[in-house]
Amino acid sequence: MWNYEKRLQFPVNIKEPNAMLAQVIISQYGGPDGEMGASMRYLSQRYATPYREVAGLLTDIGTEELAHLEMVAAIVHQLTRNLSMEEIEKSGFAPYYTDHTVGIWPQAAGGIPFNACEFQSKGDVITDLHEDLAAEQKARSTYDNILRLIKEPDVCEPIKFLREREIVHFQRFGEALRLTQEKLDSKNFYAFNPGFDRCEDCGKDCGKDCGK
Amino acid sequence: MSSKEQLLNDIGIVSFVIVELGLYLDTHPYDRNAMEYFNHYSRIKQQMTREFSMKYYPLTMEMSEGSKEWRWGAAPLPWEGACV
Questions:
Q1: Which of B12, B29, B77 is opposite residue A11, by nearest beta carbon?
Q2: Testing the interface with B: which of A6, A12, A60 to mutate, by most B Cβ within 10 A?
Q3: Whose CB among A63, A65, A121, A203 lies 3.0–4.6 Å from A38's, allowing a Cys bridge?
Q4: DSSP letter assigned to residue A113
Q5: CA torsion A165→A171→A175→A178, rounded to 10°?
Q6: ipTM of this model?
Q7: What percent of chain B has pLDDT over 70?
Q8: How far, in Å, CA of B9 to CA of B3, rounded?
């Protein structure tokens, strides 16, 4: 269940269209390390952890990623609003324009469509949390790359906000990994998948301190 | 900045504090100071959201209640940009 607030998480007010920038920023909508993959990754991974606090964190970060998805779409929308045909032809935006006009569609900067293979949901909480740590760093690198291409402050500010959030999420996922490992056998974290294997003590996938 | 823009901007700031504290509390559930901050800013956000929705347009569907006409659909869209 979700509720919607009719506002962006961080304001996006772009004055001048710029199709070249739109074409690179769309990668954070539907590219390999974009916000669509991020939100679907965390919201899908929730079911494989028996630890409520970890599932809670995946829900809350997954929800924030949906707000980031909307921010990236708003940036691309405002960068492609009121574009002239001449600008579309000169900026290299013609291939995207041919298929989508200036509508929003999830693709990478290089034109590759969004694909669920951009993220993993492995059914093992330790594996999933390592994927999440890497994903946040890959998204941070992508925003760094985008920031090197932008000079306009009204585009920079929301991108800088999104980049900072990747760092905070990385921090929280690190803590979630520590919370998970504290519940497992410290001699061998991998002895037992708490989302699948059954506990020898109680015979259930209780997810409690049963790393035997 | 108009008073409408100012209030929406302030709601954005307070909401960000709540999101940030929420994630922190997810992994530090026993931090009493963080919990007090969370309670404080959540109350402020509720008041500001109610004030904005009464004066301008509903920010959530639930904030549409109490009016004769359906104002939710006519509210500006978040991606429209400047001049909210």
A1: B12
A2: A6
A3: A65
A4: B
A5: 140
A6: 0.95
A7: 96
A8: 10
Cβ-contact A185, A192 below 8 angstroms: yes
Model confidence, pTM: 0.94
Residue A104 region by backbone torsions, left for phi larger than 0, else alpha for psi between -120 and 50, else beta:
beta
A69: its two tokens: 């998805």
For B15, the domain range is 3-80
Determine contact: A103 vs chain B, CB below 8 A: no
pLDDT of A68: 98
What is the distance between the alpha carbons of residues A43 and B22, in angstroms, rounded to a whole number? 17
Give the total number of structural domains in chain B: 1
Q: Do A7 and B76 touch (CB under 8 A)?
A: no
DSSP class of residue A114?
P
Whether residues B22 and A60 touch (CB distance < 8 A) is answered with yes
Mean pLDDT of B28-52: 98
Share of chain A above pLDDT 70, in %: 93
Q: A205 pLDDT band (50/70/90 cuts)?
A: low
Question: Helix H segments across chain A?
Answer: 19-25, 27-30, 35-45, 52-80, 85-91, 94-100, 125-149, 153-182
pLDDT in tens, A144-162: 999 999 999 999 999 999 9
